[in-house]
Protein 1
Amino acid sequence: MVQIPVQTLHRDPQLFYWILIPITVVMVLTGVLRHYASVLMATAPKKQDVKAMREQRFLGRGVTLRTNHHVLSQKAFDVRRETLTAGYESGAYLKEPEKKGQPPANPLSDPSAMDGMMGMMKNNMAMIIPNTLIMSWINAFFSGYVIMKLPFPITIKFKSMLQAGVQTKDMDPRWMSSISWYFLCIFGLQFVYVFLLGSDNAASQVAQQMQQQQMPNPMGGPGQDPDKQFKAEAENLAVVEHYSVLDDVEERLLAGIKS
Amino acid sequence: MAPSLLQPQGHLSPAETLKLAQQAPDILRRNPKAISASPLLSLFSAPETADLWTIYENLLLSCLRTGDDESAHHCLERLVLRFGDNNERLMAFKGLVKEAEASNHNELLAVLKEYEDILEDNQANIPIAKRRVALFRSMGKTPEAITALIGLLEFSPTDAEAWSELADLYLSQGLYSQAIHALEEVLVVTPNAWNMHARLGEVSLMAANVSTEGFPQKHLAESLKRFCRSIELCEDYLRGYYGLKKVTDKLLSEPVKLKKQTEGEGFSLPQKETIEKLNQAATKKLAEIVRRHGAQEPLWQGYNADEIVAAKALLDSSASNVVR
């Protein structure tokens, strides 16, 4: 059996101190900075005015009535259904009753929707700008270096991950380039941020991206016409087939007690 | 269950509140005055938790109840330091402290004026709107309180707290059908709240007791069913069994003329045998609760002592009826 000779590269040990540590420190500091920048730039959640709240809550009331109709007696439910449906259809619960029937305004021209978009833009900017800067900084100064050797063997598939920027085909994948260290820092520093800034920090972009994906469209979707929502809810209410949980409750109870 | 500062305080007895309020100096000393947002300091000091602010809030309430105004002010100060002057919840707390310290009617009126100014500024400030209702109520102006509450519900119709307060106010005025309506709204929002089911049963029973003309049986049937539902949701619920026994006793002692009910007019009463069975079951369960509570069984001590006494009295009275 032939032992594959261990690759040795002679590199200046100073490389380690002057590349690895600066990149790490810069990455941590950018994360901290990004956190504070986004805290500063965060727009306070906009207060709802009475009309908007009324519109939203009356819609919610229709939904709760539809889902929990079974706690009411037939008569009580009918009365509520009639009132709500009448209100929905006449547009009495709308924020701007006089605008009923008109097409919804362009969300781009609506200043309140604009605010939300600006907030998102700011967040994205806070992520993109520092990343571009650092990436180009690293590219300009450190590209092409191999900075360290991992202390454990690793398969060939990791080559592209660990040796970005170093096009040497036969090099052992255990060698690692500076750009790769940068990428590792992006994804691996989250726990450092949690330790430094608390668990709900805005430093890590991975977490932010996830949050953005999960976030439903704010304010029930701009561009959705509340009048149409009301009409739809009125229809939903109309088709509810009422039963009451109080029908035969005493028989159920007696059976339950006996068993 | 030992009282805890992390839970709502409404149901605590004065003694328990006092015990909580006495922890105030200790808690205030143990926690720093202001929580720093700097990353370096947070490494070395205790981390900020959401619990801390709940504790401050509840401490504030119990201190006000026990007259420890100084600690209450400290709590409020720290909350304001953290959340700012314009937090709606804190505005309500500030008003609450002022109400508690007001010594005469005029000062209360001044607080009320303040609330109205705030509301004029921002009508959607729900905590302040609720404080205003509470202040009206504690000043004895029930009609104003009802009007203010209806105004609040006009734009926030899914607020269970407000609906149940409204029910209570209507009940205090003897307006039973309005109270029942409000309680039904509470149930629409919180369909599985067994205490609200039982409460609705109680109010229906009261309505049946006073309604002289017409149809008490509609209310009685509703009341019976509500109590059954409440027990179904929470077995061993004393108030549910108590009410069930009350209403079945009433139904058995004075058999209502079973008029033919028109369809869709509420619920119809169950058969007489069913009522009897329900009555027996309720009696049995109440007796069991009273016995096991009295025997100091560890899992049966959660009941309110007054409710146990009332249940015992009810059992005794019905027992003497049987003997006679």
Note: Chain A touches chain B through 40 residues (CB under 8 Å).
Protein 2
Amino acid sequence: MMKIENLKANIGSKEILKGLNLVLEEGKVHAIMGPNGAGKSTLSKAVTGHYEIEITGGDIVYKNRSLLEMSPEERALEGIFLSFQNPVEIPGVNNAYFLRTALNAKRKHEGKKELNAAEFLRLMKEHLESLGMKSDMISRSLNEGFSGGEKKRNEILQMLVLEPDVIILDEIDSGLDIDALRAVSEGINKMKNGKRSFLVITHYSRILDYIKPDYIHVLKEGKIVKTAGPELVAQLEAEGYESIEDENQ
Amino acid sequence: MTMQEKIARYKADFDLFFCPDEKIEYIIDLGKHQIPLKENEKNDESFIRGCSSNAWLICECDHDKMHFRGEGESMMAKGMMHIILDIFNHRTPEEILSFDPAQLQSMGIAELLSPVRQQGLEAFLNTIYDHAKRCKSAQTKEA
């Protein structure tokens, strides 16, 4: 699905990713864990084309094309979705308009008929119910005045509506209480279809109890230093990241 | 789908919206699908008198049903025409003449219209019913 090869990336003059290699397999859930400052969020920004990131080496190959040649908008249209760690509030931009515009841009790109407002709201109604969200949330300004949990649920709502191929969840579990975590995880699990790939960036194992990962990757100092199955989580919980040696050396 | 079923579907659609502005925008969006008439079709005969915006309606009556094509100039007229023709198009004259236009009220959109636009809607419906009477009469003579 996606191959990240020897990726090097800077923020400003500081090198954050230092030759990162990662293969995202189709239909699999990959969890990225690592200490603060290891480059986890930088990786998500590099994949989605964030303006802060300067790629200085390597490549990201997605659907047999270099992702680095694509604009952020094109990457999104091609099915890459990033759920933000801190979803931005945009006063004055209606949540429903925002999402319908995004969905119709994607449908147009895929040669599908655009949805009118009523068709879209009917679709939203189903998803809102499944996420335990109040229906008036879609008529409010995007994330404005939303609680932390509401913002994260709104990210999942966007994901459910846009049906991406690669889903990057950057600390989706931060700031969530147990009920919100469960609702968000259920939304994510609903998206599993055997084809869609997930990159779950997290500090904590708690969310991985709900979203069962196929692989755990440890990111340290800008590189993936270890890849293993879900059993690695228990070791990380018990011994921390310091116990992990770079298996590539 | 019967005329009543079409009305029920529109009512369900309009009930999804949270405020009148969203309903008006939906009406305007629907009007974007309008296929314009040819310039020579927009004449005195097809012109609808009494509409607040310029609007034209063409009716083709065959041995069975009535087929309408129309064009409105303003965005609102285009949208309203789309809804009304979606309900009334490809019906027999009997179906139209036996249909009480007061049933359209249940969609909850008449109250979104200004008094002038409500008069325009009435003029548009009168034109449809006039065509239905003429079509029925032509079909009776033909038979």
Note: Chain B has a mean pLDDT of 93.
